[in-house]
Amino acid sequence: MSIDTKPDIQVISNLVVVNAEGKVLLTQYNPEVDRWWLPGRDVEPFTHPDDTARSVVESVGVKPLSLEFKRVQSFRGRRGWHLAFDYLVQAEGSPDAPAEWFEIEALPKTMHGGWESSVITDLVAA
């Protein structure tokens, strides 16, 4: 890619949602694929990442007790340049399917290999 070529930019709100038992919430966007994701969504143009994060929490059906912005990640992804706004959310309740609570030490296969686990570890430990 030359200096004059601008990459596609994907802005994302990612959530690490934790309950009182210390379990983390993961979602499946396609139940036919045996891989799990952090709850998240692309940020629409002219929308603040905080608003997108709140919308994601509502969409999984748990009750947020707190929502705290933690950091921004910037990295090359499959679809260009990614800016990921990471949030730590304390929540309670039973999620709507397809989402489940998991022990942090026993996460299922995730869509991006170890990336989800590292984000969870970084945000929960902070």
Secondary structure layout:
Blueprint: E1 9-18, E2 24-27, E3 40-42, H1 49-60, E4 63-77, E5 80-92, E6 99-102, H2 115-125
Parallel strand pairs: 1-5
Antiparallel strand pairs: 1-3, 2-6, 4-5
Give an overview of the whole structure.
With 126 residues, the chain is α+β, with helices and mostly antiparallel strands. It has one domain: Nucleoside Triphosphate Pyrophosphohydrolase, CATH 3.90.79. The strands form two sheets. Strands 3-1-5-4 form a four-stranded mixed beta sheet. A two-stranded antiparallel sheet has the order 2-6. The mean pLDDT is 91.
Question: Per CATH, which architecture?
Answer: Alpha-Beta Complex
CATH homology superfamily name: Nucleoside Triphosphate Pyrophosphohydrolase
Share of residues in strands:
35-45%
**In which range does the helix fraction lie?**
10-25%
CATH class, anyone? Alpha Beta
N-to-C CA distance: 36 Å
Low-confidence stretches: none
Number of strands: 6
Shape: globular
CATH topology category name: Nucleoside Triphosphate Pyrophosphohydrolase
Averaged pLDDT, please? 91
